[in-house]
Write a structure and sequence with these properties.
Elements lengths: L12 E5 L3 H12 L3 E6 L4 H8 L4 E4 L10 E6 L4 H14 L3 E3 L12 E5 L2 E5 L6 H14 L3 H18 L4 H13 L2 H6 L3 H12 L8
Parallel strand pairs: 1-2, 1-4, 2-3, 4-5
Antiparallel strand pairs: 6-7
């Protein structure tokens, strides 16, 4: 059983070994997280060539060697060469770097969940590497259920939390109140796009004098 964490990679080097469709998806996920991405492979798919041409990542069209890992904080391998995948895993183990090898749990020190992103809200599904296809199917289900409105709801709830902290509310009161707002249907009220109804909803639950965020 794994211990799930959120790793901050913004502005930090991440290496992707391989340059096919799977490697492209891995690189795109790292770019969304703000990582400085280096991709290493003798050849690259069109998507990675385009990202490199746009200056969004660094592409090294050459065979993998361990020197590419210098300065990295994590490594993803996604090649169709089992020997290369095993070498990447061994190099990372020697250097103390976290590594994920696509579809090879035995070579990984971490696995990647299937994720749905809605602004700063991230929903993740993991199967401990046993069945990625099942995780993807559940992700698609979550994508349909939790639309962009949930990202908007998180943004508002975050600003409300900041206001509660400024008002001197304690942690237990904040948690209970925010949970109550969600249970009472704040998402549906936001979805209505009725600013007056939203203000009334919040004042009814937070008090008429509570300073609502702009």
């Amino acid at each position: 059983m794994s211990y799930l964490v959120n790793l901050s990679v913004e502005g930090r080097k991440a290496v992707v070994v391989g340059a096919g469709a799977v490697a492209l998806r891995k690189a795109q996920g790292l770019l969304v997280a703000g990582a400085r991405v280096t991709v290493v492979a003798p050849e690259a798919c069109e998507g990675l060539l385009s990202l490199a041409a746009e200056g969004r990542l660094e592409l090294h069209l050459k065979p993998y060697d361990a020197e590419e890992l210098e300065g990295a904080v994590l490594v993803l391998a996604a090649t169709d060469d089992e020997a290369v995948n095993a070498r990447v895993s061994a190099d990372c183990s020697r250097l103390g770097l976290p590594v994920n090898v696509a579809d090879r749990p035995a070579l990984c020190t971490f696995t990647l969940p299937a994720v749905v992103r809605r602004g700063d809200l991230t929903l993740a599904v993991t199967t401990e590497g046993r069945c990625p296809a099942f995780a993807r199917a559940l992700r698609e289900e979550l994508e349909g259920r939790y639309g962009s409105i949930y990202g908007e709801a998180l943004d508002l709830m975050g600003r409300l939390r900041d206001a509660m902290l400024s008002e001197g509310w304690d942690s237990a009161r904040i948690q209970k109140t925010l949970a109550g707002l969600y249970a009472d249907g704040i998402v549906a009220v936001i979805r209505s796009r009725d600013a007056e109804a939203l203000a009334a909803f919040l004042h009814d639950r937070l008090g008429p004098d509570f300073p609502l965020p702009a």
